[in-house]
Amino acid sequence: MKAINVSFKYPACQDNVLKNINLSVKPGDFVAIVGNNGSGKSTLCKAFNGLIPKSIAGRFEGQIIIDGQDIVDLTVGQVAKKVGYVYQDFENQIVRPKVLDDASYACLNYGMVDYLERGEKALKQVKLDDKKDENVWELSGGQTHLLALAGALSLSPDILILDEPIAQLDPLRADIIYEILKELNQKYKKTIVVIEHSTEYIAQYCNRVILMKDGQILWDEETKKALQMVDDLIDSDIFPPQVTRAAKKAMDKGDLKQGLLPINLHEGYEMFRFFSYKPKKRKLLKKNENESIIAIKNVTMAYKTIHDEANVIFSDLNLDIKRGEKIALIGSNGSGKSTLLKMLVGLVKPLKGDIIIEDKSIKDMKIDQLARTISLVYQNPEQMFIMDSIENDISFSSRVRNIEGWEEKLENLIKRFSLTDLRKRDGRLLSGGQMRRASLAIGTALDPKILLLDEPTSNLDIKTRKEVMKLLTEIKDYTETVIIATHDMQLVCEWAERVIVLHQGQVEADGFRDEIFANSEVLEKVGIRPPQIFHLAKSLNKEALVYTIDDFLKDFEVDYER
Fold this sequence. Notes:
Largest sheet: 6 strands, mixed
Distance between the termini: 51 Å
Structural class: alpha/beta
Shape: globular
Strand order of the largest sheet: 6-7-8-3-9-10
Radius of gyration: 25 Å
Low-confidence stretches: none
Mean pLDDT: 90
Helix content: 25-40%
Number of strands: 22
Strand content: 15-25%
C-alpha cells in the first residue's frame, strides 16, 4: 500500500488537509499513525480505503496504490476486498439485528454463495463465534467494536485500518482488541494500521510509528526509535509512555546517564531499580462533610431484552453525593456508569427506588426544574448540537425559557470557553477538542448546581486533553458538584477528590484515590488499571502510591548502595 505525492483539500477548507504525502506500508506491518487532532490521520486512512476521492468530495492529487493497482481504477467495493476499515464511530457500521447476519452482510451484498461461512470464520477470528445467534444490541461496547471488525474481515482483506480502536474501552477490553489484532497480524498475516493516541499500546504491539502534523509526515520510524523522540511527540500533542517521560526527565536532571529511554515497564524497572522510595509529604484530602445534594435510595434499574427478559443494570443501589464533591465514577464497560448519569437527569427511569436531588424526588420535579439543577454532557459531544451554529446551541436553553439577560449569558459563555472564533460554526463540523469546549458551554448554560460528564477526555490528543482538564478545574468556580464517568485513570488521579467504583450493579468501592488504588483486590476484580507510573513505582516499592511523573521523581531518589 503506497501513497505517492498525495494531497487533498475538503471543499469548505482553504488549505490542504493532506500535503504531498509519500508513504509505503509493507505487507505484515503493524503500523501506528499518530498526530494531534486535525493532523490529517483519518483523512489519510480514508484515502487508503477509497472513500477519498470516491465518496468524499474534495480536490485530490497524487496516487494511492493498493496491491499494485491505482485506487482510481478500482470501485469502493473492490477496495473493500483489499482494505478493511473500522471507523472511530464503529456503531454506524452495524446494519443487521443479529450478530452473524451483520458479520456476513458484506459478503451477502457481494452475492457470495458462502457468505454465512465467511461470516462465521470472521467471528471466530475475533473471538465472537459464541455470540453468532445473539442480537447486536445485547453486545458490550467492546464486542460491538469486534463485530464491526468481523464485518470488515469477512471480505478477507489483506490490510486492516482501525481508527482509535480502544478510545472508549476499559483496559481489559482494550487488551482483548489488541491481542486479536496481534493474532490477525501474526497468525493470519494481515497488515494492520491503527490511528492511536495510547503510546503504551503502540510500544507493546506496533513495529512502526508514523508521525503526522499539519497534513504532512514528519517521520516514519521503528517503534523503539520513534518513542525515543520525546520532544517531537510532545510538540505534536502525543504523550510518550510515562516510563519514557520519567526517564527523560531524570536524564535531563542528571539522575540517570544519557542513553536509550525505556518504552515499557520492564525496561523502566531496569533503569530505575537503583532508586529508593523516600515519599514526600503531600496535602491530605479531607472527607466532605457538606449536606447531601443527591441521594440514590434502593434503586433497581433494568432494560427489557427482545425476549422480554430483564437485563438488570442496578439492584437496590444506594449512593449519597455531598454538595461540592468532585467525583470520578469508574468501572468496566457495562458497569452502569452512563446509565447512572442518565437516571440522574431523568433520561431513563428506575423500576423501583427513588432519586432525591436537593431534598426533592425527581419524580416530583418538572423537566425544566430538573434541567436547571442538573446537566449532562454526553460522551459523544456531537449529540448536543441541534442548531446551525455554536452560539445558537449555547443560547437555546436560555432563549426557549425566556430567561432575562440570555444575550449577556451567551457572551460570557463564549468568552469563558474560548469559542469566539467558532461561534458561527456548526458544532458537528468542529474538531474533537472544539466540540468538547462547546459541549461544556452548552452543559453549563443554565448554571446547573450539578454537572455530569460522560468520558470527557476520550479521543483527545495532549493539547486538547489539557484544555479539557483546565476547563474541569475552572468549572468548580461556577458549578458546585461535578461527577465524571471515565476510563481515564490519569484524569481520575489528577482531578477527583472521591472515586466511586461500580461493578455488577453495585458500588464495589468508594473513597479517596489512595484507598481505591491501594486495594489490589478491587483493582483486579473490576479490571481497573492505574497509570503506568503507578505500576513502575509499585515494582520498585510495594508501599509506593505515586500517580504522576513529577511525584515519582520527587519520591524516588538515586541510591547507589542498592
